[in-house]
């Protein structure tokens, strides 16, 4: 399986990079992983609705340009479906079974994802009703993908 994580913004925090690198190393036994970072759109702290829409659209264009046309797209969105680790594993296993070998997870910037990206998504996934920093979500997502492969293979994992 080829899995891409397409995300807005460059990861700067060393501790998050170390955690992601550790899980990417572990995941190499299960799948080809690729993290694609697109630049975030510079914007002032206070934005009007129109300005926020423009920022999300520009970031969305960058994201869409990186999505493989054959990919099954899973957008991380607060209004997405919440799943257990086992349900995520089952969904990924079904994708592989039915020939969807390319999966792209998408993490938006601090303002979220554009409508265009959400329309391209085959499904929306939520980790919580809470808001998390999008940089932290990269680590959480990579860990959950690793956990999913452990579950699929019947290998031990922490419950």
TrEMBL record:
It catalyses: pseudouridine(1915) in 23S rRNA + S-adenosyl-L-methionine = N(3)-methylpseudouridine(1915) in 23S rRNA + S-adenosyl-L-homocysteine + H(+). SUPFAM superfamilies: alpha/beta knot. GO terms for cellular component: cytoplasm. Pfam families: SPOUT_MTase. InterPro entries: Alpha/beta_knot_MTases, RlmH-like, tRNA_m1G_MTases_N. It is found in: Cytoplasm. One of its GO terms (molecular function) is rRNA (pseudouridine-N3-)-methyltransferase activity. The keyword S-adenosyl-L-methionine applies. It is an enzyme of class 2 (transferase). Its main location: cytoplasm. S-adenosyl-L-methionine binds at residues 76, 108, 127-132. Belongs to the RNA methyltransferase RlmH family. Homodimer. HAMAP family: 23SrRNA_methyltr_H (MF_00658). This is Ribosomal RNA large subunit methyltransferase H. It comes from Cytobacillus dafuensis. The gene is rlmH.
């Amino acid at each position: 399986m080829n899995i891409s994580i397409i995300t807005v913004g460059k990861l700067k925090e060393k501790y998050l990079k170390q955690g992601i690198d550790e899980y990417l190393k572990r995941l190499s036994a299960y799948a080809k992983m690729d993290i694609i970072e697109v630049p975030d759109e510079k914007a002032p702290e206070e934005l009007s609705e129109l300005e926020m829409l423009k920022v999300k659209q520009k970031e969305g264009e960058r994201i869409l340009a990186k999505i493989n046309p054959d990919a099954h797209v899973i957008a991380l969105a607060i209004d997405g479906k919440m799943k257990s680790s086992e349900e995520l594993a089952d969904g990924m296993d079904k994708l592989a079974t039915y020939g969807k070998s390319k999966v792209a997870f998408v993490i938006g910037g601090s303002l979220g994802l554009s409508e265009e990206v959400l329309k391209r998504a085959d499904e929306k996934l939520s980790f919580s009703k809470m808001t998390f920093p999008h940089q932290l979500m990269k680590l959480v997502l990579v860990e959950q993908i690793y956990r999913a492969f452990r579950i699929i293979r019947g290998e031990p994992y922490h419950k």
